[in-house]
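Replying to the earlier thread about multi-chain prediction with a worked example.

Input:
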Amino acid sequence: MQAPIADPVRSTHASIPGPGPVLKVENLAVAYKVRGGEIEAVHEASFEIYRGESHGIVGESGCGKSTVAWAIVNFLGPNGYVKRGSITFLGQELVGKSEEELRRLRGDQIAMVFQDPMQALNPSLRIGDQMTEVLTVHRGISREEAEARCLQMLERVYMPDPANVLRRYPHQLSGGQQQRVVIAMALLNNPALLIMDEPTTALDVTVEAAVLDLIAELQRDFDTAIMFITHNLGVVARICDKVGVMYAGEMVERGTVEAIFARPQHPYTQGLLRCVPRLGMNKAESILYPIRGRVPPPNARPFGCVFAPRCDYARERCLQEKPRLRPVATGVGESVSEVRCHFAEEIDPGRWRPTLDMELPMAAATSPASPDTGEALLRIEGLRKYYRVQGNTLRDVLGLGEKRYVKAVEDVSLSVPKGITLGIVGESGCGKTTLVKTIIGLEEPSEGKMHFLGFDISNGIDKRDVRLIQELQMVFQNPDATMNPAYTVGQQIARPMLRFKTVSKQQVREEVIRLLKAMRLDASYYDRLPRQLSGGEKQRVGIARALASRPDLILCDEPVSALDVSVQAAILNLLLEVQRQFGTTLIFIAHDLSVVRFFSDYVAVMYLGQIVEIGPAEAIYAPPYHPYTEALLSAVPIPDPKAQQKRIRLEGTVPSALNPPGGCRFHTRCPRRHLLPDGGRICETETPPWRDAGQGHRIFCHLPLAILRTLDPVLTTPSHEA
Amino acid sequence: MLVNDCMTRHPILVSSTLPAAEAQRIMVEHHIRHLPVVGEGKRLLGLVTRQSLTIKPDTLASLNVWEISRFLATMTVERVMVKADQVITITPDRTAERAARIMTEHKIGCLVVVEDTRNLIVVGIVTETDLLAAFQEMLGLPTAGVRVTMRIPNRKGEFAKIASVVAAQRWGIVGVASYPARRIPDRYDVVLKITEVGPEEVQRVLQQIPDQELIDIRTVA
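Result:
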């Protein structure tokens, strides 16, 4: 048909893909038309993705990460449009093409996976019908054949019992399974480009780890180019080859993962890396440095460098002149990062010192007492919380059926000494929140004793003394949902003061402003409404409100998980400061093990309503571990591409609390059972003993400590030893 | 090596309504010589090669400049492509040498890789360049090492001699190939690429194999 021609440009090196990039975005600007003008959400973004490569896009919320993705798939909505620049997909320009042309061009070659899998699945169709539709509609494949292909693909994404899953509805699957279905569906057409927008953010760490493993494997097998949008630097370090850092609608730095993490060149990237706690960091030895200020809204971006107002190195030139994205040698191998900074070569992050106006907690040098000794502020013994489940059968309705209970909290005993922080970790559905709700009195315990300051608080909240209620306060995960949108900040914080009469009526305003100041908010916030605050500010008000009654114990239910990393660092610092200043005891729930390690003195690991391991934070994060803790630790994404992490993945999901497994509740998923004689039959039948590893560190496991001690540490990082 | 392992996945695909001039631009810009043309669901409709873009003079009414530009402007990929029933395809589960055989037999530069032989769903493309890249890999490029050629008699157990010597020395082999020796009957040439050892040592050891002849040795990077 044709004669071969000499082609000197195409590389013959086998590992370098010959053809150009799958996706090339150049100087992209995206704007939304609004009343009275337009808002430029993305100002300048450039990057390219090759076959089999995964390219991360990171940045705080509101930086335009998702807008770039939507521009690629033309999801911008009626008022959004690509203002400048070009998007080239497999050699063909996407900008300026008609809807029909675009559809044909992209066809089924670009697939997208979103954060919430439930939104991508049709709740009224069986999984099998939704999946086969992809093949039967586009390709005219027969139904039987399509079903066989879907089954194959579900097996490929390690879906347990795939044939059965095809017959189920989306709501009958767990979050991790739903996300697997979405990924399988995205891959059915063998797309050249897969755009993933925070695909694991809504998942538990253990599930997240499994899904990330899966993505990495599929990328290798299918040679798919992946654009991976996330705010989690740990996830980026684990699966991406290249990273682009976005700030206020601009790509500010771009390079290989190794270079970005080892030698970040842009002050913003350096700041981001300083504000994430790394596993192995604790509050006594290290400090998180939040980035001051916040991302400017698109219509109020500064004229010069967009980061200048928050930058510690900003000079006159930064305010006058917009920096260009330019290559800078990183010193990591021969790699070159592209950086949008005038002074990248002059900035040495090693010589960075926090500025005076930064919110930093004073070093807390107090060594807390052991949870078993010392003066216990809160003591819980044998706490159980069961929820009665109403069946649907006639027998159940008449009350004749067997009574069934969800055993949300089962036999929890712990004591919290004054002035310490107890962290509680575990997968979702393991009873963390129920435990805290029971302590604060929102739920009445089914059994067990709770003593707070020596008073019995085992009864419901209506039977508690006002003084006791005052001493126990809570900070919630979602500050939006816990604030009355019609009340001003001042009113919200004043309410508990008036209710508990902690200060006289004349002094309330003064006291509120004092608290606001302690939260680093000035007096002008007194009259603001919640909707006029950013997420971080709302959470500050939430903490101020919890502090208003001057409580002895504050229960924090995931107080930072809904916030950006830079804000998260500031809130954590604030909580540390509060604890130091007011001597408050904290119980801190989080699913991020790095944050818990950083923040807590003691850590309790919960599984299916039980505490399986409890002890000082540093002891929990080093052997001996409970096998469950070990698995959790190996799942945490570490923001360091060089970190060596043992790979332990838990099978399946947390069993139903309605009918928990007998013996050790973890035996169905335990990866270490085989270390016991007889394949660990004892785990199925007998409740494990508490093994005492000293210093108040206790492990709830059949495996003797001698064996648990021999397990290798999960993490070995260069920075860990340093 | 199977076609699945040496093909280019996610090749640039075009639709049949694309102007031929645009197809020409894509091919030049990306330094490629073949463009599969696909319809809904990546079903193969045809193939555009550089040859199909050469215009035969007899299709033009005259050599008038205006005539030519009008002709080019209206020409779509559909009109110039090789139709699907004439495009030679292969499935990913065939061997790389079979792909090479088909290409030499038909004297063509590329095979379109399809998954479903009835619906012809394009999953990749194998070109001469892909096969040449595979060829390099089989002979151990780009790893540095000693490349040695042994001439051995055509009988059973001769290769095993080489293998056992290499095994005794604990050398690593990154590439192997063998072919009938040129113009010498009953002899085979075996090419080995051995890493992390010097050429002198390889020569000293391999020369001692009885009935075999070391005919070429060189260090390649």
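Residues 291 and 353 of chain A are 12 Å apart (CA to CA).

Feel free to reuse this layout for your own posts.
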